[in-house]
Design goal:
The chain is built from one helix and 24 strands. The chain has 279 residues and is mainly β. The protein has a single domain, classed as Jelly Rolls. The protein is globular and about 50 Å long.
Length: 279
């Protein structure tokens, strides 16, 4: 089955500091309609700027550097550097990392939170860095792709998290077409990083900063297709994950987790403040 786009929205600017650019891509207030995705931010910091990167217990936190570089330091003094195209995945205890942008460009990155069922949450913190050179190169029609996590069609990435999540950086030249094979039990969205494209059976036109959520058929074992055609040179991030409570490995109590993401009454991430999603 060829899928349609069922909902689109634009990113919103946030943050009170004029030298910090932040976009709220996926907002926690919409959690009930986007489970298991809690939030996605796009942020930019100038060279030598220091800033926190937060996570919560029970979520998969992913940071992907789009431009520039940064160094992260945890509470024990361990530090690691992320260059352009590198990503950092962590699960386990929540907390705050201290990060510092470096280089002439500063740093531009994406920060994602994905919820997990209680039965799969690790007892100890876990971290894995996926370097740009270690991503899985893939192609879907005319599109070239970098697969950071999970699997898409015949391609699998080096990163596999406790709860399945697929993260793909997809590039298409003007006029190019692509067909993405999507599992029917997964919720997915595309974020246009640059350019413009038509997406889905209904050929929805998307530009830089647009977010598109795709149709779900929820038929076990089915694989559907999402068609994309680039109007200009286009780069998009595509993210997909099963809905909590519908995955075959979830226990009975996990079904309720879509109404109770692990967040405090107020989330502060990169200078952007969010209220807790309503139950």
């Amino acid at each position: 089955m060829e899928l349609s786009v069922v909902r689109i929205h634009k990113t919103t600017s946030a943050g009170s500091q004029p030298w910090v650019q932040a976009r709220s891509v996926v907002h926690p207030d919409k959690y009930l309609s986007q489970c298991p995705f809690i939030l996605l931010n796009e942020e930019f910091y100038p060279p030598l700027g220091e800033f926190p990167i937060r996570s919560h217990d029970g979520v998969i936190a992913m940071t992907l550097v789009l431009e520039g570089s940064m160094t992260q330091t945890d509470g024990t003094g361990n530090s690691w550097r992320l260059e352009q195209g590198d990503s950092d995945f962590s699960t386990g205890r929540g907390g705050v990392l201290r990060a510092e942008a470096s280089g002439e460009q500063g740093v531009r990155f994406l920060h994602l939170w994905v919820n997990m069922p209680p039965s799969l949450r690790p007892n100890v913190p876990q971290r894995q860095i996926v370097r740009h050179a270690d991503t899985r190169n893939a192609s879907f029609g005319d599109a070239s792709a970098l697969l950071y996590a999970g699997s898409l069609g015949a391609f699998s990435a080096p990163r596999r998290s406790p709860w399945p999540i697929t993260i793909v950086d997809l590039s298409l030249q003007a006029g190019a077409q692509s067909s993405l094979p999507l599992a029917s039990n997964e919720r997915s969205f595309a974020y246009i990083l640059s350019g413009s494209a038509e997406l889905g059976r209904n050929q929805v036109r998307l530009n830089r900063g647009n977010v598109a959520w795709t149709e779900r058929t929820v038929t076990p074992g089915d694989v559907n297709s999402l068609e994309a055609r680039a109007m200009t040179d286009t780069r998009m991030l595509f993210i997909s994950s099963p809905v909590i409570g519908e995955h075959t490995s979830a226990v009975e109590d996990d079904a309720a987790q879509c109404v109770a993401p692990p967040a405090t009454s107020l989330l502060t991430i990169g200078g952007v403040r969010y209220r807790q999603p309503a139950p």
